[in-house]
Amino acid sequence: MARISENSASSTGIIREEDFSVIIAQAFATYGLSVVTDRALPDARDGLKPVQRRILAGMRQARYLSSRPTVKSAEVVGLILGNYHPHGDTSVYDAAVRMAQPFTLRYPLIEGQGNMGSEDGDAPAAYRYTEMRLSPLAEALMADMEKDTVPLHPSYKQDPRVLEPDYLPGRIPPLVNASSGIAVGLSTNIPPHNLNEVLRACIALLDRPNMDVEQLMTYIQGPDFSQGGRIIGIDGIKDYFTTGKGRIIVRAEVRLEETPRSRSLIVTQIPPIGRDKVKVSIVKAINARKLEGLMPDVRDESDTEKGTRIVLELRKDADAAQTLSQLFTETDLQVALSFQVVFLFGEPMQAARQPKQVGILELLNYWNTHQIDVLTRRSQFDLRKAQERLHIVEGLIIGAAHADKIVKIFQQAEDRATARQSIEKIYKLTPIQSEVIASMTLAQLTRLDATKYSKLCRPMPLHPKAKTEMPFTLPYVEMNNCARSSPPLRKITSCVLVLLDASSRSQPIVFRPLPVQAKVSLQASFWNLLSVKRS
């Protein structure tokens, strides 16, 4: 039994007895929930764990972009520890390094410089030696985050100026990069997939959300491992596509090279377990006399330019086909991999709290819904900003038309506040419009050009390849002193969008009429991504 003290209104207190088993059960339940939701499982909307999301969001906030020079990894680690991640520096640096390793992630989210580890199991250099910055795909993953598309909350630092997102806009589907984690009572092991194939499947699901697994497999052939390998059979792929759980067999790519003096088996692609483990398994099999047809020397001629090249020299009297079969049986050149697609799910603008094992169809449909929500919120933000700018421009047009009179009002007024009230009353301006005019200098006010501001309120031009039917249009207002402006949202009842195929750049693709305007922007965004990263 355990004694627990409770503070009361008096100075003494109440002591009650509790069973240890009850206290431990409650504490373990709290711990388990924390591990599931805040550490081990990725979010289905962006495919990231909390530590990965904090690293990317912090680097974006600090402007460590792909267009800028790399910075010391120690600077990144210190930034994330100080502002976002209440854990040790090792967890932050290890997660950042994994996002920079092309043999770990199919599409790295960080560009690293220096020793970031190798496929042979070599550890990365300390963070005082290496450098990093965001990759272009990581920037696409966080595009439009500043436009109220995702919820933000204060980090553990409790500084209102330091905010972290609950999830990212996630322009990259969560399936393209591998992810694994072990929680309390749950685990996930998600294989990587080809970005080109997954995006095409997402586009198809916009029109046919109820397609079956066989139709989905015409778009996504299966896992796409960064180290290569050949998948034997499709039953395991169908299983995890359907239920989220399956088992596949991956075999290395091996070819025979013959010279006048020798014959060798050359391993050029390996299963996704690491080159060091493959070599160790071959050496163990040779020492155990399970591979009589091979010479004892295993040469690793791999490098960054040629990729994987492991040379296994055959004995003169060896049967190459039989030896290759023994290699697949006795070594890790052929392995069985089990997958369990478990993600965290949540409602829009809320943190994900519900772990769920899902099939690929359900996952991609959920991600499509998230993308439509992000694009809708982005359009609403752009519309709000354009309307605010339009409101100011309308006031400037009135100010330009009566500039001389307004100048006299300010000259005759006792103070600026009195002048503001006067022009609001005379010209029916709002406080925002009068404040903009009052903050201008005399030279600026006298040089106001009504014709110039009237041209800013022109209708938004249509793209020459887009045909739209619009019941009404909103004026297009250029964002003054803003390098990147966006037009306001238009209500589009139907749209036929013609785009060039990213693979051929010659044949146009015509999408059927869509009932939701966000789907049109979503398809355009997908095709833009296809042109950014192709494998």
- Approximately what portion of the residues adopt beta-strand conformation? 15-25%
**CATH third-tier fold name of the domain at 365-532:** Topoisomerase, domain 3
Per DSSP E runs of 2 or more residues, the count of β-strands stands at 21
Taking Cα atoms only, what radius of gyration do you get, to the nearest Å? 30 Å
Average pLDDT works out at 83
Share in helix = 25-40%
CATH class annotation of the domain at 365-532: Mainly Alpha
Sequence of strands across the biggest β-sheet: 12-13-15-14
The named CATH superfamily of the domain at 365-532: Topoisomerase, domain 3
Structural class: alpha+beta
Characterize the overall form.
elongated
**Largest sheet report:** 4 strands, antiparallel
Supply the CATH architecture of the domain at 365-532.
Orthogonal Bundle
Q: How many helical elements?
A: 17
For the terminal residues, how far apart are their CA atoms?
A: 62 Å
Helix and strand topology:
Layout: E1 2-6, E2 14-18, H1 20-40, H2 50-61, E3 71-72, H3 73-83, H4 89-100, E4 110-113, E5 131-134, H5 136-141, E6 152-154, E7 163-165, E8 179-182, E9 187-190, H6 195-207, H7 213-216, E10 230-232, H8 235-243, E11 245-251, E12 253-258, E13 263-269, H9 275-287, E14 294-300, E15 310-314, H10 320-330, E16 334-340, E17 342-345, E18 354-357, H11 360-401, H12 403-412, H13 416-427, H14 431-438, H15 442-446, H16 450-456, E19 466-469, E20 494-500, E21 508-510, H17 517-532
Antiparallel strand pairs: 1-2, 3-5, 4-5, 6-7, 8-9, 10-11, 11-16, 12-13, 13-15, 14-15, 17-18, 19-20, 20-21
Helix pairs in contact: 2-3, 6-11, 6-17, 11-14, 11-16, 11-17, 12-13, 13-14
